[in-house]
């Protein structure tokens, strides 16, 4: 506790600490983003193979978030400690593997830098180290991982969305971000609204407009922020989705029938609602609901 108090009294040291911590978490998120979909795929393939052969699934080699160690996907080179320093190692290696000289994707340091920046921003927003800041960081890091996984695979894994939902309800037992009753209603309404939209769209068009992972993600956002935040999240995600969707179609020359993941837009909107939601609502009510003079 003395260390926390000392850091809170020294803003520069606090923000340096948060930046370094955020960069480190960002490095771990790169592992999460790559391995969770791979783990799901391995398990599904083993299950399907066993089902077709009418046998028990074979035991798979250990593959999780910790094992095996990180390797170059091109030559299998074991990543050494000095090659795994967030952002800095990428710069020192000039974006290439030290063994085979294959190019390392720029997305790895970008995710690390983004995670570091968001961590510092939340430190400023919440005024220093606190339980609220710690939980807001878990919320943010989870949304960042879900965003990248959905972009890569069009999936929002239950391994992240469901714990995020339950954690939101647990957190709001103490009313940290919303009263418990609002959180429970938010979780139910978040799932139910998109479920209804999904089935209405499917009945009228014969197509599936979104996945069940989107329902669970909005339910998680409702559990964290309460049902009052859902209209804002839905409006923001629709606006961000429309703008970015059009840009993606123009830049990548995609057709309008090419599926675009909706999870990233929900995640962005949910994060905005966490950080600036109250300010935005206060501005709205002050601007549009003030009774006219006279």
How does this structure look, described?
With 294 residues, the chain is mainly α. It has 10 helices and no strands. It has helices at 2-8, 11-53, 88-92, 107-125, 131-153, 158-171, 180-205, 212-225, 230-252, 263-288. Helix 6 packs parallel to helix 8, helix 8 crosses helix 10 (263-288) and helix 9 (230-252) crosses helix 10. The longest helix has 43 residues, at 11-53. The chain is globular and about 65 Å long. The mean pLDDT is 89.
Helix content: 55-70%
Count the E strands.
0
User: How does the helix and strand content classify structurally?
Assistant: mainly alpha
- Uncertain ranges: none
Span of the ends, CA to CA: 55 Å
Largest sheet: none
Order of helices and strands: HHHHHHHHHH
Which value, in Å, is the CA radius of gyration? 22 Å
Total helices: the number is 10
The percentage of residues in β strands lies in under 5%
Question: Based on CA inertia axes, which overall geometry fits?
Answer: globular
Q: Mean pLDDT across all residues, rounded?
A: 89
């Amino acid at each position: 506790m003395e260390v926390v108090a000392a850091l809170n009294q020294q803003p520069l040291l606090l923000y340096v600490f948060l930046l370094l911590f955020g960069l480190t978490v960002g490095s771990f998120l790169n592992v999460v983003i790559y391995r969770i979909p791979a783990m799901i795929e391995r398990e599904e393939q083993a299950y399907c193979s066993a089902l077709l052969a009418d046998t028990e699934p074979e035991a798979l080699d250990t593959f999780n978030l910790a094992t095996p160690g990180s390797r170059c996907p091109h030559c299998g080179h074991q990543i050494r400690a000095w090659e795994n320093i967030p952002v800095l190692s990428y710069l020192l290696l000039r974006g290439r593997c030290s063994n085979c000289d294959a190019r390392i994707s720029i997305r790895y340091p970008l995710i690390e830098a983004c995670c570091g920046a968001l961590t510092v921003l939340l430190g400023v927003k919440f005024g220093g180290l606190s339980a609220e800041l710690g939980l807001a960081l878990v919320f943010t890091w989870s949304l960042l991982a879900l965003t990248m996984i959905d972009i890569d695979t069009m999936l929002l894994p239950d391994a992240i969305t469901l714990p995020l939902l339950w954690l939101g309800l647990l957190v709001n037992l103490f009313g940290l971000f919303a009263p418990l009753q609002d959180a429970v209603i938010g979780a139910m309404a978040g799932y139910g609204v998109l479920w209804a939209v999904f089935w209405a769209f499917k009945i009228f068009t014969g197509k599936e407009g979104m996945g069940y992972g989107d329902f669970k993600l909005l339910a998680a956002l409702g559990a964290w922020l309460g049902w009052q935040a859902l209209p804002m999240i839905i409006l923001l995600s629709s606006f961000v989705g429309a703008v970015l969707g059009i840009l993606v179609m123009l830049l990548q020359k995609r057709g309008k029938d090419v599926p675009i993941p909706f999870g990233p837009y929900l995640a962005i909107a949910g994060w905005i609602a966490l950080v600036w939601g109250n300010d935005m609502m206060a501005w709205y009510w002050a601007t549009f609901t003030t009774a006219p003079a006279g």
